[in-house]
Amino acid sequence: MKKDSKLGRMLHVLIHMSLRGGRATSDTIAQMLDTNPVVVRRTMAGLKARGYVASEGGHGGGWQILRPLADLTVLDIYSALDEPELFAIACAQDHPGCPVEQASNTALRGVMEEAEATMRTRMASITLADIASEVVTE
């Protein structure tokens, strides 16, 4: 199963944009991510809807960060990306009437809900400025 790297990729893009003056075109971002500019525009749409970035068309246009990195958390970006699945594991659905499957699913749901709550709390505590401060430039 392929892992979803959208969150990590968008953190990468936003921090690069900030370090390079806060602006970048879809083409530049696409080159950075080795993808298509259409994919970039589609992915950035969620960030735009939340007011984290804006886009301007035409010559000299592109994407611009609207908020300081200190005001954006990893959870903010995760939420703007429509909250991709955090885990590849899921509860069984083969025999919903089976008491063993029900008990197993109850246990798994509890563990996964607790893990997700912990991850969300941690993501909310990390700003993009925190991440950017770890970048070593030469």
TrEMBL record:
GO terms for cellular component: cytosol. Gene3D superfamilies: Winged helix-like DNA-binding domain superfamily/Winged helix DNA-binding domain (1.10.10.10). It holds the Pfam family Rrf2. It comes from the Bacteria. Signal peptide: none annotated. One of its GO terms (molecular function) is DNA-binding transcription factor activity. This is Transcriptional regulator.
